[in-house]
Design goal:
By secondary structure, this protein is α/β, with parallel strands linked by helices. It has one domain: Rossmann fold (3-Layer(aba) Sandwich). It is about 40% helix and about 15% strand. The chain contains eight helices and seven strands. The protein has a seven-stranded parallel sheet, sandwiched between helices. Helix 3 crosses helix 4 and helix 4 runs parallel beside helix 5. The model has no long low-confidence stretch (mean pLDDT about 95).
Amino acid sequence: MSDLFDLSGRVALVTGANTGLGQAIAAALAHAGADIAAVGRSKPDATAKQARAAGRKLHAIDCDLGTQPDVGAIVREVVAKLGRLDILVNNAGIIRRNAALEFTEEDWDTVMNVNLKTVFFLSQAAARAMLEGPKRGKIINIASMLSFQGGIRVASYTASKSGVAGLTRLLANEWAAQGINVNAIAPGYFETNNTTALRADAERSADILKRIPAGRWGKPGDLGGAAVFLASAASDYVHGAIIPVDGGWLAR
């Protein structure tokens, strides 16, 4: 059974792998046997240390995904440096908060570019590379509770994460028969940079905790198991799924 979750010999490209959820996902994939290509705006030194501790390689690619980079070049660099590309984790994401009546076009475009546009075109570039390989591949998108709910004061984030859910299903429909699994993880309320403002608001934080059956905020490491599952042979017949890792939030 353990062989189903073994990622030995695989290469995973993880965006936003320098901190938070992306770092935890990259570490989990490395511990399962994958080499890691980490894409982000800062050096993933801590992530690299964890990958090395697992006996795996990490290749860092310095890139701001909000500037609409050449995603084809990113994929080619991964293949050139690590030999192949088997797994893509579209984790990088940003958020802007403001009332809908005050929300700016700049904040709309900035979030949509990173959270949705780049997700599609990087998936496209990765899929082209995966179709040239012997084992095809796995694409894991990071959705959100706001892929299911509306939220407040985060118009572009809600729109982008709703889009990620739809895009996950569309790409699964198109690529499943070609040997590429496209699925998503929907984290609940986690202790990350994106939730600093919420956790600092005592009243809002208390309201959130009241609804989480597990009784706590998620920790980045809580995502590792779902990521390894979706990246491994254990999920070979799973297509277009969005797996909540939310402490039971959606069950309430």
